[in-house]
Amino acid sequence: MGSLPSEVFSPLDTNLYSKESHAMVDFIADYYRHIEQYPVRSQVKPGYLSKLLPDTPPIFSEPIDTILEDIKKDIIPGLTHWQSPNFYAYFQANASTAGFLGEMLCSGFNVVGFSWISSPAATELESIVMDWMAKMMKLPSMFLFSGGQGGGGVLHGSTCEAVVCTLAAARDKALSKIGHDSITKLVVYASDQTHFTVQKASKIIGIPTSNFRALPTCSSSDYALTADTVRKAMESDMAQGLVPLYLCATVGTTAVGAVDPLFELGQLAQEYDVWLHVDSAYAGSSAICPEFRHYFDGVELADSISMNPHKWFLTNMDCCCLWIKNPNLLVDSLSTNPEILRNKASDAKVVVDYKDWQVALSRRFRAIKLWLVIRRYGVANLMEHIRSDVALAEHFERMVTLDDRFEVVVPRKFSLVCFRLKPKFEACEEANYSELNRQLLEDINNSGRAFMTHAVVSGTFMIRFAIGTTLTKKRHVDETWKLIQSKATDLLNRKYKK
């Protein structure tokens, strides 16, 4: 119930802030020291927390030590530990000390940088950091503020926000030519490997669900979207009086890490006057390494490109970079100028007002987090971070190929390996492949010693082994492979024992 207040209520007492912040930092540091002791995937049942916490809030204040103890006792068991070195599921969401410190500054200053005048440093640092990041990735100068060609970048919270904004800009640009009552004619194109956020964004900005095209891919192209497939779809739509609007190409798809051919798709987008967006949420970080930059050849033909430093760039959630060749299209689509926000700098159009580059008005000081990560580690260490994860993935892939019970289903891309257990008998049907591997995956995850997720591509069920957690070392990969082999042995013995 808490205790009666003994002092005047002061929610931002600097002495107390220092003391309790130290307690919180120590608590988090202790969590990381012992993170391998927890089951990677939470083992709780739905509704567990309502049985542990009171159904009414406390009337009086409670000490931070009591709250931290309850977090340890009640909250941590319900966490799936994304920062565990044995987390290989979904996608990277790696953290770092610099990322934590940047997040502390972001929360500590707690500025709301919707316009330049609301906090000039927040706006100007973001513009600088976006140019830094673009230069690290060797993006064309047309995407940079400093490139002198009108481009620029903005930090969003997620890829979904970035896609919503670029789709809105593309929509309004198109409707200004064909009439605003023609929105039902607009068509959005992506591959069947493109992240579902593009379909969600299409619905949000008013594109009919029937006008979204998830175009097929196949193993012969390593599940990349081909220009020929897109061309046929666009020609078919135009023959029916529809208007191609937006094409999303991906570098590093969620399921298998596929890479779409940007140059060919870019030429096609220009031919049909279609907005080309490049989603490199996961793999964009790899572009800082020269050996991976070729995957981005052709990006100069795109209208916009996004990547997420909060995935593979040691920058804690949330942080998504979006670059656009013509920011005026964003501003035209998303801007509002109420009297209460007017000021001399904005009226003179000599500053960036990031409120006009996003859906929301309010925005966090994300730039200071990314700035601190880049400064604290430097390009050399960030490149080493990417390369070490790729090396671990290569190592895991080699181990898979050496066990004739397993097969790599899709050639490794970046730090993602997709594999499966082969059936006992060659005549085993695909459905039995899937059943076997679903059970193997469940056995692994139920052990609490590792967590992986799956994908189904062209009807093929596969287990995804996504390396990228900051704490993952070679020993973790080796131990997890032994776990996989052990669970496979147990499963095959149960399934096929005579």
TrEMBL record:
Main EC class the enzyme belongs to: transferase
Keyword annotations from UniProtKB, A to Z: Aminotransferase, Transferase
Keyword Transferase attached: yes
EC number(s) on file: 2.6.1.57
Keyword Transferase: yes
Protein name: Tyrosine decarboxylase protein
Species: Dioscorea alata
